Amino acid sequence: MATLKSVPVRLPADKVPTKRMVRDIIGAFLTQEWPSVDPDSLQMSHRVNFANAHCPVERPNITDGASVEPLKVFIKFHEKAEVNIEIFKHLAPRKEQEALLCHEFGQSELGHGAKVHGFL
């Protein structure tokens, strides 16, 4: 289940996270393998859409066998605690509720979305 967690990371003025920041954010939720990943080995891109920025991230497998944590992660950066788009406010008036809604949809028979590991 998704959890709310404070991660001591501050994005730079241009709002583009460094690879180390991304590794630290993911490592706060996926604590077995991600914290020891070399940030320079990450493949990532930072994109801004009409509401919030997002960052797909992929890491190499650092184990000899099968990885116990996902190798690919999608991070969504929220600008504020409030929903930015008026038309969606009735579904999820706060970002925490939006994350929970995404998690629940991903678990439904219709959902094929990403698994929500947490939000900050």
Strand and helix map with partners:
Elements: H1 19-29, E1 43-44, E2 47-48, E3 53-58, E4 72-77, H2 95-107
Antiparallel strand pairs: 1-3, 2-3, 3-4
Walk me through the structure.
The protein is α+β, with helices and mostly antiparallel strands and 120 residues long. The chain has one domain: 2-Layer Sandwich (Phosphorylase Kinase, domain 1). It is built from 2 helices and 4 strands. The chain has helices spanning 19-29, 95-107; strands at residues 43-44, 47-48, 53-58, 72-77. Strands 1, 2, 3 and 4 form a 4-stranded antiparallel beta sheet that branches. The radius of gyration is 15 Å and the shape is globular. 12% of the residues are buried.
Radius of gyration: 15 Å
Order of helices and strands: HEEEEH
Helical residue percent? 10-25%
What is the correct CATH architecture? Answer: 2-Layer Sandwich
